[in-house]
Amino acid sequence: MNADATIVVIGGSSGIGLAVARRSLADGAAVVIAGRSQHRLDAARAELARAEPARAGLARTGADAGRLSAYPADIGDLAQVTRLFERVGTLSRLPAGRLGRPGDIANAVAFLIADDFVTGTVLHAEGAQILV
Ligand SMILES: NC(=O)c1ccc[n+]([C@@H]2O[C@H](COP(=O)([O-])OP(=O)(O)OC[C@H]3O[C@@H](n4cnc5c(N)ncnc54)[C@H](OP(=O)(O)O)[C@@H]3O)[C@@H](O)[C@H]2O)c1
Best mutation site among 8, 10, 13 for ligand 1, i.e. most ligand atoms within 8 A of its Cβ? Predict the structure, then answer.
């Protein structure tokens, strides 16, 4: 894994997401976990700090200064998800500079159902990241 990687795990306070966060920390990435419940985030952060104390940085600093941070966000709320990625600082790295909107997907659907020569079944709706 790229040492500069920042892995944002929405749903990282439990189950599969927590396992992804733990593995990513062990592999050297900076990890941001997000979920709706602050209580669950706090518990997950403590668990990750116990499992990966050197990587998480929490055992040394007792603060958010390590490679692990946690922010509350509901993935069903675009404003909260936008705020999350603004805080993490990754939104500005997208060439489009923003998250996707429903109209972006409508454009992709219009392409897929067009009666034209060029067709496709896989489109990357990811803010033009694939171009850089
Ligand atoms: N296909 C399969 O074989 C298979 C196997 C296992 C699991 N799954 C599915 O995979 C998913 C994850 O399973 P899991 O066992 O890891 O579940 P889990 O332990 O319940 O974890 C769900 C995580 O997502 C977060 N979350 C839920 N709703 C959210 C929302 N609206 N916004 C942000 N975060 C949200 C939860 O935190 P908060 O509640 O605090 O938000 C929690 O961190 C589930 O949908 C499950 O059904 C599929």
Answer: 13
